[in-house]
Amino acid sequence: MKIEFSANKRVLQGTGASRRLRRAGKVPAILYGGDQTAQPIEVDHNQLFHSLKQEAFHASILGMNLDGQKLQVLLRDVQMHAYKPQVLHVDFQRVAADRKIHMKVPLHFVNADIAPGVKLQGGIVSHVLTELEVSCLPADLPEFIEVDMKDVSVGHSVHVKELSLPKGVEPLLHKGENPVVATIVVPRGTTADELAVADEAAAAAAASAAAAAPAAGVAVAAKQPEKK
Fold first, then answer.
1. Which of the chain's termini has less CB crowding within 10 Å, N or C?
2. Ordered strands of the 170-171 beta sheet
């Protein structure tokens, strides 16, 4: 579901005008991009402040109602007060349906609790990346990208090129680059003996699962009725 919000064009500019806007519960902002010139705008502070708490507001196509005109935009920059819970300024970018955009998309990590490196070897997941910059058309932009940790053991990692990206979405990487997204490491203080026991348990569990798979297949086959 697209997040929508309202904005109004701003005529007065400058430090004094921005200060008066903030006292009136508004946030000075700028809308740029496309083939149009940058447009100074203003947004309701309370609505914007609560919207900024939503992850999707930072990584989704937003619906802006600008004085009755409906636009598709991206949030590009936010300036917060140094110590007050106050938004000072925001930047929005217009998007066109037929032009690819570059956007940082949040990573959601799943199945870490059942990963061999965590469940059997006592490791912990180290998140090297928490977001990934991608290129895609606006309609293909995902709210998040899932990182499945279910098969990762201690000392092993998940790389960007191993991720299952939605159709039409490409990671922005330099040539030959394939950065680590997450890895499972042994907590500090773990002894060599403890690690050896954990490795043996993981190996035994893997061997047991491998042995059970063909046995299960034979059992299922045995139940099949004989063809006449």
1. C
2. 145-148, 101-110, 131-136, 170-171
Residue 113 has pLDDT above 70, yes or no: yes
Tokens for 50, please give them: 């609560």
CA–CA separation, 87 and 45 (whole Å): 7
Q: Are strands 3-9 and 39-44 parallel, antiparallel or unpaired?
A: antiparallel
**pLDDT higher than threshold 60 for residue 127:** yes
Residue ranges with strand state E in 96-204: 101-110, 124-127, 131-136, 145-148, 157-159, 170-171, 180-185
Using a 10 angstrom Cβ sphere, with 0-12 exposed, 13-18 middle and 19 or more buried, the burial of residue 42 is: buried
Which has the higher per-residue pLDDT, 76 or 219? 76
Per DSSP, the three-state class of 58 is helix
Q: What predicted TM-score, i.e. pTM, was given to this entire model?
A: 0.76
Rounded mean pLDDT of 161-179?
A: 95
What sign does the dihedral 97-99-101-107 (CA atoms) show?
positive
Could you tell me which of 37, 19, 35, 34 has the C-alpha nearest to residue 89? 19
